[in-house]
Design a protein that fits this description.
Layout (H helix, E strand, L loop, with lengths): L4 H13 L2 H8 L3 H15 L4 E4 L2 E4 L1 H28 L5 E6 L1 H5 L1 H10 L6 E6 L2 H9 L5 E5 L7 E10 L1 E5 L9 E3 H5 L3 E4 L4 H12 L8 E3 L2 H9 L4 E4 L12 E7 L3 E9 L6 H19 L4
Parallel strand pairs: 3-4, 3-5, 8-12, 9-10, 9-11
Antiparallel strand pairs: 1-2, 5-13, 6-13, 7-11, 7-12
Helix pairs in contact: 1-2, 1-4, 2-3, 6-11
């Protein structure tokens, strides 16, 4: 027994209206076609669905029993149609983002604000983690987008540079280096250094920088986040070599930024799965990220 969705629609319409004429009008087919579909359906299921009483079709007890299930079916169809429309207009959906903490705190909120202005119902899930874990999630197709701060290349991902900049040195106001404008590694060696683990990409970059100058990095306080390094510098515990992104929303009244020699490039990068086609809503969010970064550059925050 095979009952089509069209036949179910006709049965429900006749039950609710009690009229072949009304059902034909509601479903957009002729009265004879409605009658044929009903007759065919009754033959297929093996029992009557309607009986005529006082010129109208009255549903049998079996048909009345079917009505709640028919309502659930067509309510589901209506929900599906609304969902399809929302997806077409990109008013709903979800985006999974893996990101390093500094970009989660600075770039990402600005991108989300731009994106939500037109698509507030899209769900965004943010996973904070180190750079290498972001790359792993992207390579394994576990998230849609990744944001990292790194000069590294990652296998299994497509890398898009969002903004290229350089490491800087930060020191507390009143520090002996504060008036220099720029510092070299020999200057840095003279003071307690707040820096990153050599297992982290930024720590490896700084280690390589010292090694190329024949120097050995000596760390007074080891941290894993740029925000922690900023706090330690602000407390006067030393100086730090950091990415400029950490200063985007920072209060700089008690911090001095110094140009570092030699210059050491660092990039904010967007990672996407190498072989995965991004959803339309994810592609739109990528545009919001680019706009957010462009606005930061235009306002000279980075």
């Amino acid at each position: 027994m095979l009952i089509t969705t069209r036949q179910l629609e006709i049965i429900r319409s006749v039950i609710l209206s009690g009229s072949v004429t009304d059902a034909a009008h509601q479903t957009g087919i002729s009265q004879p076609a409605v009658s044929r579909l009903l007759k065919d359906c009754e033959q297929r299921i093996g029992f009557a669905l309607f009986m005529r009483k006082q010129g109208r079709l009255q549903p049998t007890s079996e048909a009345k029993t079917m009505l709640p299930e028919l309502n659930r079916i067509f309510e589901g169809v209506e929900r599906f149609q609304r969902l399809a429309e929302e997806l077409r207009e990109m008013k709903t959906g979800s985006i999974q983002i893996a990101t390093t903490a500094v970009l989660a705190d600075t770039v990402l909120p600005r991108a989300i604000e731009l994106f939500f202005a037109a698509r507030p119902k899209v769900q965004i899930t943010i996973h904070n983690m180190p750079n290498y874990e972001v790359a792993e999630r992207i390579a394994m197709d576990q998230v849609d987008l990744g944001l990292v701060l790194s000069p590294e290349n990652y296998l299994g991902t497509t890398i898009i540079d969002l903004h290229k900049t350089e490491l800087i040195c930060i020191a507390p106001v009143g520090h002996p280096l504060a008036t220099k404008g720029h510092v070299d590694l020999e200057d840095v060696m003279r003071f307690p250094l707040i820096s990153f683990s050599p297992t982290l990409p930024l720590g490896m970059t700084i280690d390589k920088l010292f090694h190329l100058r024949g120097l050995r990095r000596r760390v007074a306080i080891e941290v894993s986040q740029s925000s922690t390094a900023l706090t330690m510098v602000r407390q006067g515990f030393g100086i730090a070599l950091v990415d400029p992104f950490i200063l985007i929303d920072a209060d700089l009244t008690d911090i001095v930024t110094l140009k570092l020699t030699p210059s050491t490039p660092i990039s904010a990068q967007l990672l996407i799965p190498h072989h995965e086609q991004l959803s339309r809503v994810a592609k739109t969010f990528v545009k919001s990220i680019h706009t957010a970064v462009a606005n930061l550059v235009a306002s000279k925050k980075i």
